[in-house]
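Hi Y.,

Following your request, here is the sequence exactly as I used it, all 103 residues.
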Amino acid sequence: MSYAHFMSLVGGILITTACVALYLLPTLIGIAQRRRDIVNVFVLNLFLGWTGIGWAGVLIWVCIMPSSGVQKASNTPIEIAQKRYASGEISSAEYEEIKKNLT
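Below is the corresponding structure, written out as C-alpha cells. Let me know if you'd prefer a different format.
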C-alpha cells in the first residue's frame, strides 16, 4: 500500500465520520442535553434527516425546546440521603448524622 493510497483511505474515513456526525448532530445535541425524549429525537433524525427539512426540524426542536423532557442533572447530597432513608437503606440515626454533617 502506497503512502498516497493510505492517506486517501484515511481522508475518506475522516470525511465519512464527519458526515455521519453532522447528520446525527441533532441527536448528539439531545444526548448532551440529557433529554428524556432522546429516542424520539434519534428516530426522527435517522428516518427524516435525509430530507433536509426533517433534519432542520429536529435540530430546531432540540435547540429551541431543550427544557421539554430534560432530565434533572443530579440530586443534592441531602436528597440522596432522604431517598436512601426512605428506601430503608440507612437508619434514622445514620440519616440524622448525614443531615447534620451536610448542614
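The mean pLDDT is 89.

Thanks again,
Q.
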